[in-house]
Write a structure and sequence with these properties.
The structure holds two protein chains of two kinds. Chain A is mainly alpha-helical. Chain A has eight helices and no strands. Chain B has helices at 12-29, 39-43, 92-102, 106-113, 149-160, 215-218, 237-245, and strands spanning 53-56, 62-65, 123-129, 134-136, 141-147, 170-179, 186-191, 206-211, 230-235, 253-260, 270-281. Chain B has three domains: 7-76, no CATH class; 90-119; 123-281, Jelly Rolls, CATH 2.60.120. By secondary structure, chain B is an alpha+beta fold. Classes of the chains: A mainly alpha, B alpha+beta. Chains A and B meet through helix 1 and helix 7 of A and strand 3 and strand 11 of B.
């Protein structure tokens, strides 16, 4: 194995270790949205129901669960783009550029988390009937086979050149993370 | 012949590929170089869920095959008469020894010739890069590749005092994310060519020549590689050695001149996402 391959293997092993730890934590503390709709009638029905739901599912725990799930599932698919940033950057900038790439990527997925967990909460609050998850599953299947999903997958394979010096290098690493996150979110079938 | 989707319709395509097959066989048999042995190579792209290799056969049938079924001529029913016309490059140890002599390290060169073990390393590190994308229009374009002073000094140090433990770095120029719509172009790349000089008078500064086969498909944003274009690596070790020996490596940037085989019209330029320089060593 060449020195170059050894360095690339180190990146792969570090990322896979993070993913494994996240999986262990998720398996040790599996969480799911718990909800008990308030059944009394009246104008304050949904606000009381929301308060109960937030008491049973604290936002901090929901956010922590989402981040853990991201680290477990998404970290392995970041190995090729992280290697790309590593190779494209000066040695003294590698850690900084990889950090910015991950920050941009995570920002997109955290925004997706707010959106998706919000939809899940709203569905549990206003329409806990069986057809809501069925409609969600149906739209996911349609998306999986759509040309848009393939388009996102193709664009996610693009590893473009990054500026090497100064502010432009930081900007490009962050921008690569954001665009990679967008195409990755689009191709994940959500 | 320049377009992946149409190339196989040109009769010269088979002549061209038969010649590649002959050169490959020569590479194996004359130089004794082995093909890769890892499973992803031997099983081909089909094993990874990608397209499989299919050969048309006489009649309506086809032959679906993997690289391990065509790994050497002994598996096939033909052979070549001779490989005499193929170039025979010197062995790596001889090349390194010659290079060490050029760099003024005659004692190290002698020890390498005598079979001393050399720690060739193999780490790859960015030395410099163009800051903007480079549009190639007209008959040539000249651009500046800025060097990182600390990494450039590291390269210079290995050239100034090479040893078996720290042999001189090899240096590569990369044309990254080359995009465009002109498949048939060929680009010649020169290092530190004087501004008004005729490139044909300075072939010692020629880093290499790249053909842009498949450029159009590789540039389509919704294609299977997201429109990232083509990338090429050219070894520029000899040119960098000459710059070092004439005290011209100690500068903030290297000038790179790209000369297309035919002048490119303004309406269909080729763009190079980044021109970068890498060192390979310890």
């Amino acid at each position: 194995m060449t020195a170059q391959n050894r360095e690339l293997a180190t990146i792969r092993n570090a990322v896979l270790s993070i993913s494994t730890i996240a999986w262990i934590l998720l398996l040790a503390w599996p969480g799911s949205l718990t909800h008990c709709p308030v059944t009394t009638s009246g104008a304050l029905l949904w606000t009381a129901s929301l308060q109960m739901m937030l008491a049973m599912n604290p936002p901090g725990l929901l956010a922590a669960g989402w981040v853990l799930m991201l680290m477990a599932i998404m970290a392995p698919v970041l190995i090729p783009p992280i290697r790309h940033v590593w190779l494209q950057s000066f040695k003294h900038r590698r850690a900084r550029s990889i950090g910015l790439f991950i920050a941009g990527y995570a920002a997109i997925w955290l925004a997706m988390g707010v959106l998706l967990v919000g939809i899940e909460l709203a569905a549990a609050l206003f329409a806990p009937q069986w057809y809501v998850p069925v409609a969600g599953a149906f739209s996911t299947v349609v998306w999986q086979f759509s040309p848009m999903k393939q388009r996102c997958l193709n664009r996610g394979h693009a590893h473009t050149a990054l500026a090497a010096f100064g502010f432009a290098a930081d900007r490009d690493a962050l921008r690569f993370g954001v665009t990679h996150g967008i195409w990755c979110a689009g191709s994940s079938g959500r | 012949m320049g377009d992946c989707g149409l190339a196989a319709l040109d009769p010269i395509f088979y002549l061209h590929h038969a010649n590649i097959d002959r050169m490959w066989a020569g590479w194996n048999q004359v130089l004794g170089t082995a093909n890769p042995a890892d499973a992803t190579w031997l099983n081909g792209p089909g094993a990874c869920g990608d397209a499989v290799f299919v050969m048309p056969m006489p009649g309506p049938s086809t032959w679906v095959y993997t690289p391990q079924q065509v790994n050497s001529l002994s598996q096939l029913n033909y052979e070549y008469e001779s490989y005499d016309s193929l170039p025979k490059p010197e062995l790596p140890a001889v090349q390194l020894s010659e290079r060490l002599k050029r760099l003024g390290a005659a004692a190290v060169a002698e020890r390498v010739n005598a079979g001393a073990t050399v720690n060739t390393g193999g780490k790859v590190e960015l030395v410099g890069a163009s800051q903007e994308q480079v549009p190639v229009k007209g008959s040539s374009v000249r651009t500046s590749v800025r060097l990182d002073p600390a990494t450039r000094s590291k390269v210079a140090a290995t050239l100034a005092a090479p040893s078996e433990a720290a042999p001189p770095d090899r240096v590569f120029l990369r044309l990254e994310n080359v995009r465009g719509t002109q498949n048939a172009s060929v680009l010649s790349v020169f290092i530190d060519l004087p501004p008004d000089a005729d490139p044909n008078d300075h072939l010692e500064l020629l880093a290499g020549t790249v053909g842009l086969f498949g450029l159009r498909q590789a540039s389509v944003p919704d294609g299977s590689h997201g429109g990232q274009g083509l990338s090429f690596s050219l070894e520029i070790t000899k040119i960098v050695d000459a710059l070092h020996l004439s005290d011209r490596l100690n500068q903030d940037s290297l000038q790179v001149t790209v000369v297309p085989s035919d002048a490119l019209p303004d309406r269909a330029p080729i763009t190079i996402g980044r021109i970068s320089i890498f060192r390979k060593g310890n």
